[in-house]
Design brief:
Elements (H helix, E strand, L loop, with lengths): L18 H22 L4 H17 L7
Length: 68
């Protein structure tokens, strides 16, 4: 017999936000993540600019596939 079985699930529906406001929050979060990753990478300023230029080129060309 399993312990701590789920007995009920309560779902609280949050009123939807304006699409533009949510989009802005997502953009802000993405910028913070990119900035943090660049700072953690230990790159020089010129290297960071090179990475950002490459990211922008990929986005503008439609090449957004994740590379491993």
């Amino acid at each position: 017999m399993r312990r701590n079985k789920v007995r009920a699930i309560h779902v609280h529906i949050v009123p939807s936000q304006d699409g533009a406001a949510l989009t802005e929050k997502i953009y802000d979060w993405q910028i913070r993540v990119i900035e943090r990753r660049l700072n953690e990478a230990g790159l020089s300023t010129s290297e960071k600019l090179t990475v950002i230029d490459a990211m922008m080129a990929d986005l503008s060309s439609g090449n957004t596939a994740k590379q491993k």
